């Protein structure tokens, strides 16, 4: 399983501290996939989406949106 990190903004965190959130592939699939899939279906239709896109496409978008990087 792959893990991804990104800088999370937290109100309680002092400005000079950086909070790094870590998410697993499974977490992203559970939390982001339903939203992402529904938006892609709205744009392209479910039949085209099912033939063309996969979770890897969703994961790529999530990484870009969150400026995330894969953990070593």
Structure description:
This protein is α+β, with helices and mostly antiparallel strands. The chain is 53% helix and 19% strand. It has one domain (3-70). It has helices at 25-31, 33-44, 46-52, 55-66; strands at 3-8, 19-24, 69-70. A 3-stranded antiparallel β-sheet has the order 2-1-3. The longest helix is centred in the middle third of the chain and has 12 residues, at 33-44.
What is the fold's blueprint, element by element?
Layout: E1 3-8, E2 19-24, H1 25-31, H2 33-44, H3 46-52, H4 55-66, E3 69-70
Antiparallel strand pairs: 1-2, 1-3
Helix pairs in contact: 2-3
From the helix content, strand content and strand pairing, which structural class follows?
Answer: alpha+beta
Helix coverage percent: 40-55%
- Tally of contiguous helical segments: 4
Mean pLDDT, to the nearest integer, reads: 92
**Total domains:** 1
Radius of gyration: 15 Å
Low-confidence sequence ranges: none
Count every beta strand, where a strand is a DSSP E run of 2 or more residues.
Answer: 3
Q: Classify the beta-strand content into a percent band.
A: 15-25%
Q: What order do the SSEs take from the amino end to the carboxyl end, as H and E?
A: EEHHHHE
What is the CA-CA span between the terminal residues? 11 Å
| Neighbour order of strands in the largest sheet | 2-1-3
**Can you tell me the overall shape?**
elongated
* Biggest sheet character: 3 strands, antiparallel
């Amino acid at each position: 399983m792959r893990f991804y990190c990104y800088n999370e903004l937290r109100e309680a965190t002092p400005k000079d501290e950086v909070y790094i959130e870590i998410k697993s592939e499974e977490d992203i699939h559970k939390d982001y996939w339903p939203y992402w899939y529904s938006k892609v279906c709205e744009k392209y239709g479910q039949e085209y989406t099912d033939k063309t896109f996969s979770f890897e496409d969703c994961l790529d978008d999530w990484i870009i949106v969150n400026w995330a990087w894969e953990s070593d």
